[in-house]
Amino acid sequence: MSEIKVGTITTLKVERKIDTGYVLTNGKVEVLLHINEADGDLDVNQEVDVFIYQDKKGQTIATMSIPDIHLNTYGWAEVVDSVRNLGVFVDIGIQKEILVSKDDLPLLEGVWPKAGDELFVTLESDKRGRLLAKPVTEEIIEQERDRAQPSMLHQQTSGRVYRSTKVGSFIITEEGFRGFVHHTERKTEPRLGQWIEGRIIAVKDDGTINVSMRPIKTEGIEEDAEAILNYLKSNNGSVSLTDKSNPEEIRNTFNISKASFKRAIGKLLKENKVVQKNGETILQDES
């Protein structure tokens, strides 16, 4: 072997010691192991296992701090920074942070990961030898996931979002299940890499699960009613919606289904907090 490939773990021999560290070799190619990247003192001709990557100057170097994530191996990496129009940077356990390109992130930057979120990624190298972190594919998820049992229906679960779409959010749960949160089962769209909690509302024959982030119905009615009241109070006491309105108009305004809207409005009407007339829901004068 003559090539030393970035993103891989390889065994090299200490060729010589220099002021800044050690020169390692595979017999044909030399690479620097900086003294800060070495685990203690090394001897000439000693063999060491190292991870290969490019430093910020573009120089190929070695480290004895072996990350869990490398070429063709997936793992969780914490997001440390986000750069508009570029992507996010993740920490894989080496001194250099690795870019997840914007091309591999949602179009809407509002659901990009924030610092502290985690992404399930592997590493790839470009033609210039730079490492990039690539989010997990559905193919890998399908190979690696566990199967949920029917008895788990209605249980609480939690996990991280690994893919975000208009239709909904896909998660990997703590137990290793593949879960799906339909857009109607969430109040707001969670970020890619965000940790979420919910309850299992369906276990499919293939062992995947559907998850709801919405509260159970009785709690949801209270929450939706409160949201409608707050909206009315901040919008001159009225909204051009009733329980006869178009479902899409209701969702665009309150991000809830028509059925949820009707339940919440029914509660408010019963409590004499609102009235409906001329196609509007109107806040009652509390005085």
Would you mind describing this structure in some detail?
- This protein has 287 residues and is α+β, with helices and mostly antiparallel strands.
- It folds into four domains: 9-63, Nucleic acid-binding proteins (OB fold (Dihydrolipoamide Acetyltransferase, E2P), Beta Barrel); 75-135, Nucleic acid-binding proteins (OB fold (Dihydrolipoamide Acetyltransferase, E2P)), CATH 2.40.50.140; 145-212, Beta Barrel (OB fold (Dihydrolipoamide Acetyltransferase, E2P)); 217-283, Orthogonal Bundle (Arc Repressor Mutant, subunit A).
- It contains four helices and 18 strands.
- It has helices at 138-144, 217-233, 247-254, 258-270, and strands spanning 9-18, 21-25, 30-34, 47-54, 60-63, 75-83, 87-91, 98-101, 118-125, 131-135, 156-164, 168-173, 178-182, 195-203, 209-212, 238-239, 274-277, 280-283.
- The strands form four sheets. A five-stranded mixed beta barrel has the order 1-2-3-5-4. A five-stranded antiparallel β-sheet has the order 8-7-6-9-10, with no helix packed on it. Strands 11-12-13-15-14 form a five-stranded mixed barrel.
- A hairpin with a 6-residue loop joins strand 7 and strand 8 (98-101).
- Helix 2 (217-233) packs across helix 4 (258-270).
- It is elongated.
